[in-house]
Amino acid sequence: MSTRTWDAATYDRVSAPQVSWSEAILDRLELQGDELVLDAGCGSGRVTELLLQRLPKGRVIALDADADMVRATRERFAGDPRVEVVHQSLSEMELAEPVDAVFSGATFHWVLDHDELFARIGRATKPGGRISAQCGGEGNIAHVKAIADRLYPGEPPHTWKYAGTEETRERLERNGFTDVQTWLQPAPITPPEPLTFLGDVILGPYVQLLPEDQRMPFAQSVLDELDDPPVLDYVRLNIVARKAA
């Protein structure tokens, strides 16, 4: 998992695009309402709320690698016995009990080792369990990243794994999943609060390596080279599969 840190309050405020993509991912999970579901990369818990609405008799394990995201999610669901919040990276995940289903939005690309990622998810999922996920895929933010790499005053960080469809399908099948569907979906957005979104969500790995007084100026220099209003060239990798019985 990436070692970058997050400001959960800022992410919660500007993550409307990620939340908007989640309804379709949840629809593909085909929940009955009584399952135990892993929210793999729960962030600040906004989408966990949407997941919980679909589980009137079920439970959620909300997992995230970032301490501030975990804190925010624990505060959001304080006193709710249906939600267990776990501070773990997906590449080191070990759950106390296997889950009926796995949901994930905008997280898998932060894990550089996808072989280990899907091995851990495979071990955590019950036979017959379903996974529905979406993350940055091949070509994601290529234009924005090219600008950032060119303007960055140093060696650009290698932070993301934007995988393709075939390699992802093969990894899932190697780890016991069947009926695998993977596809790429262009999803360009004009973000809320463009400078904050760019600096905190997109360019976080870059700006966190810079001195404090250079962080927002760097993000602004990237923003200045985008259209007005800025369009971020997101490409989403969609994943649907079922664990072999």
Summarize the structure.
The protein contains 10 helices and 7 strands.
Protein architecture, described:
The chain is an alpha/beta fold and 245 residues long. Helices cover 39% and strands 22% of the residues. The chain has a single domain, classed as Rossmann fold (3-Layer(aba) Sandwich), CATH 3.40.50. The chain has a 7-stranded mixed beta sheet, with helices on both faces. Helix 8 packs across helix 10. The longest helix is centred in the first third of the chain and has 14 residues, at 16-29. It is globular. The mean pLDDT is 95.
User: Tell me, what's the shape?
Assistant: globular
Structural class: alpha/beta
What's the pLDDT, averaged over the residues?
A: 95
CATH topology: Rossmann fold
Q: Beta-strand level of the residues, as a percent range?
A: 15-25%
Identify the CATH class: Alpha Beta
The oligomeric state of the chains shown is single chain
